[in-house]
Amino acid sequence: MWDPFAISQSKMASDSDILTNDLEEEQEVSVTLPKVPLYKRALNFLFKNYLPIGLIFLVFFGILVPAPGVFLSKYPTHYICIVGLFLHSGIKLRTGEIKDAFRAYKALLLQIIIIMFLTPLIGVKLTELLPFGGRVEKDFSNGQNGTMNSTREKMNDSHVEKTVHSVLGPEAFRTGIQMYFIVPCTISAGVVLVGQAGGNAALALMTTVICNLMAVFTVPLMIKWLMSFEGVKIDIVQLLIKLILTVLVPLLVGKALRFIPHVRYFVKQNTNILKCISVTLLIMIPWMKVSLSSHHGAFKDINIAGAFAILAYGLALHLGFLIINYGCSVLLRLEQAETKAFVILSSQKSLIVAVTVLSLLPFDGAFQGLLTLPIVIIHLEILVVDAFIVTYWHNRTEQNIARNKEVRTNREELSKTKIVNENGIAIHVSTV
Predict the structure, then answer these.
(1) Phi and psi dihedrals of 417, rounded to 5?
(2) From the CB of residue 73, how many other CB atoms can be counted at a distance below 10 Å?
(3) Bigger pLDDT: 68 or 49?
(4) 179, 227 in Cβ contact below 8 A?
(5) Non-local CB neighbours of 85 within 8 Å, separated by 6+ positions
(6) Residue 159 region, left (φ>0) first, then alpha (ψ -120 to 50), else beta?
(7) What is the C-alpha to C-alpha distance for residues 211 and 193, in angstroms, rounded to an integer?
(8) Does residue 178 carry a pLDDT above 90?
(9) Alpha-carbon distance 297 to 377, whole Å?
(10) Which residues contact 191 (CB under 8 A, 6 or more apart)?
(11) Which residue blocks in 65-136 are alpha helix, DSSP H?
(12) Does residue 326 carry a pLDDT above 90?
């Protein structure tokens, strides 16, 4: 007798064999895929981590072998680096998606307030409480009685420091850290991290553009308001003019060049090369400053314990900013993508802007090297911490996507009607 269930059972067995064979073929293909050579993986790792690796290497190189950095410091190299950095930032600046960020106007407005005013205020005032070493100026003795003339009012003449014993380091470290927390959010790293975390990239880009344009005008005022330099007069107008010429003008010129089709095509085809050039220009600035400081013996009294103490302080302050910003995002009831952009951007500071402003202040190169060292230490630490946070967010997003996909699959299965014959053979008939 003709048995339809037997035919169905035979067909199902045949389909099962075909599926098994397909899986075996896929496994064979996956096994035979060529392995990426070790040198290519190493180059890929170096490219992705060029900034931290380059900073660490050149800082130590500048301390141990200061001569090359000192030689370049004799020329206006740091101005060339600054102009090149912001010219590249302008060329890479894509503002087409910015209009989408206005939908999250609450997050945008609060972000600007936190980045430009709240975190500078907290960072500067808390850093004032730390017990950094005092400063004594160069010895200008008359050669007869060995007495030292007081030069504290003439700090801009020498800037050579002898540190009072302090675990945290010299007084210049305090000034450098305070300057770091005054500047706005990162120009490119923050937007990249937000994108990797699955955050609102348009909001991150809009925040970055507004804050860094505002910083040209607000940073000099914040320096005047929050910081004091013993014996040194900061000309706010002159600093503002320098920032406009070295930051704002190259940024706008770069953005204008982007409208030229050939330039846009060239940038698209050479993205990796331009990125490496930009990072190289960035790490050259602190390298030259650190080299000058090492050449003048400014690092002789600095110990390893001080570096770890600065790391601990930077970590504590950054974690505090993360907690505050996450709490604000909860109060505003922001969406998950907006929360990621809000927390990351509001907690970061720009190394580019910090070293740019420091290089424009009326200090000599040796003193600027002391100002730069703690900034580099804290910035690298923040990048590492945020990379872990972004990885965690990314993995959670992937898990949620997989979970939602599984739920949809289960619902589709439940939408089917199961018919079972007397032999226990199941036939699935779709109700769709």
Answers:
(1) -100, 130
(2) 22
(3) 68
(4) yes
(5) 250, 278, 281, 282, 352, 356
(6) left
(7) 17
(8) yes
(9) 20
(10) 201, 204, 205, 208
(11) 67-73, 77-92, 105-113, 119-128
(12) yes
Query: Mind listing the pLDDT tens digit for each residue in 253-309?
Result: 998 998 999 998 998 899 889 888 988 988 898 898 888 888 888 777 678 888 899
Q: Which residues contact 263 (CB under 8 A, 6 or more apart)?
A: 91, 257
Q: Which residue is associated with the tokens 């000599």?
A: 364
**CA-CA distances (angstroms) from residue 59 to 51, 55, 305?**
12, 6, 18
- pLDDT beyond 50 at 242: yes
Report pLDDT for 320: 96
The region of weakest confidence among 400-404, 410-414, 425-429 is 425-429
- Residue 426 backbone dihedrals phi, psi, to 5 degrees: -95, 135
Is residue 1's pLDDT more than 70?
no
Complete domains list, the chain, with CATH = 41-133+166-410 (1.20.1530.20)
DSSP helix/strand/coil, 37:
coil
| Structural contact between residues 194 and 188, judged by C-beta atoms closer than 8 angstroms | no
Contacts of 401 (CB under 8 A, 6+ apart): none
Distance of CA 96 to the CA centre of its chain: 22
Instruction: Tell me the C-alpha distance between 90 and 247, whole Å.
Output: 10
- Per DSSP, the three-state class of 187 is coil
pLDDT of residue 314: 94
For β-strands 416-420 and 162-163, DSSP reports them as unpaired
Query: Rg of the chain over CA atoms, in angstroms?
Result: 29
Alpha carbon distance 176, 171 (integer Å)? 9
